[in-house]
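Inverse folding, one chain.
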């Protein structure tokens, strides 16, 4: 038994989309989360900058006793996973891309037309295509960068015409040209606009890495005998800029969780000056 928390981090609030799936499968596990909301988005930054930021945050989570690091950010997973595993050889470090790539390779056939949307850095890395092709070279895969999605989501601009128009701007021609039928949400922010995408493109089958990562977390904890038992540890959510939108997003997630099980919702919010990590 290991009651230490699982450390999650993302460039902002997108990684929060992993949390409900984790709680459904492993309700006893506790979370320490860091959203780098003061420096988001990462997807348009230089890889060297992303590596610096990611190292700082992972160091912080480990200093707070995280038993595992989950990179709840496709951009960081695409650019920094190997480096962080070398940096922390004694604890598991999981990226979010591999489990989604596995799901694509396992469930798609040559008749499918697979679209991957993500940040500029994620798409430029080619990480999804590489990992999928390693498992199934016959699949047809197409990628598109959608850099405006993350800033709009971080500002809470989701359920309105602005977001719908932005989705169409990036995806109308992309989906029609390549006849996309399966879409990978290659950024953990994107599940927050999944209802928009499903409404605009009702024929898409959607693969959500924020859900797929939970399988890797479960299998890693089981393999290492690191599951938590019943405990009264708080879930702690840090942000480098504890914005109203960040808190509202956590509240919404935990409101949904309360309706299923009132024992899982103890939460603390903490603002953290980025210069202190």
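Residues assigned per position:
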């Amino acid at each position: 038994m290991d009651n230490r928390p699982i450390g999650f981090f993302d460039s902002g609030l997108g990684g929060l989309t992993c949390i409900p799936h984790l709680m459904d499968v492993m309700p006893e596990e506790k979370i320490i989360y860091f959203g780098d909301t003061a420096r988001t988005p990462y997807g348009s930054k230089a890889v060297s900058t992303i590596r610096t930021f990611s190292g700082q945050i992972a160091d912080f989570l480990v200093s707070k006793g995280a038993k595992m690091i989950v990179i709840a950010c496709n951009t960081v997973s695409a650019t920094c996973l190997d480096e962080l595993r070398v940096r922390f050889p004694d604890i598991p470090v999981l990226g979010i891309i591999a489990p989604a790539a596995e799901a694509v390779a396992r469930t798609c056939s040559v008749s499918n037309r697979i679209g991957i949307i993500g940040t500029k850095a994620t798409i430029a890395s080619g990480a999804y295509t590489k990992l999928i092709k390693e498992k199934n070279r016959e699949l047809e895969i197409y990628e598109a960068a959608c850099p405006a999605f993350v800033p709009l989501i971080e500002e809470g601009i989701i359920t309105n015409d602005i977001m719908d128009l932005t989705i169409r701007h990036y995806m109308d021609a992309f989906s029609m040209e390549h006849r996309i039928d399966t879409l990978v949400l290659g950024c953990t922010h994107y599940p927050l606009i999944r209802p928009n995408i499903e409404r605009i493109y009702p024929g898409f089958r959607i693969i959500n890495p924020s859900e797929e990562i939970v399988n890797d977390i479960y299998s890693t904890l089981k393999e290492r005998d690191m599951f938590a038992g019943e405990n009264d540890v708080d879930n702690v959510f840090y942000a480098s800029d504890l914005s109203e939108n960040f808190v509202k997003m956590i509240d919404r997630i935990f409101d949904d969780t309360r309706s299923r099980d009132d024992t899982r919702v103890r939460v603390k919010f903490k603002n953290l000056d980025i210069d202190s990590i």
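The first helix runs from residue 19 to 25. Residues 257-265 have pLDDT under 50 and may be disordered.
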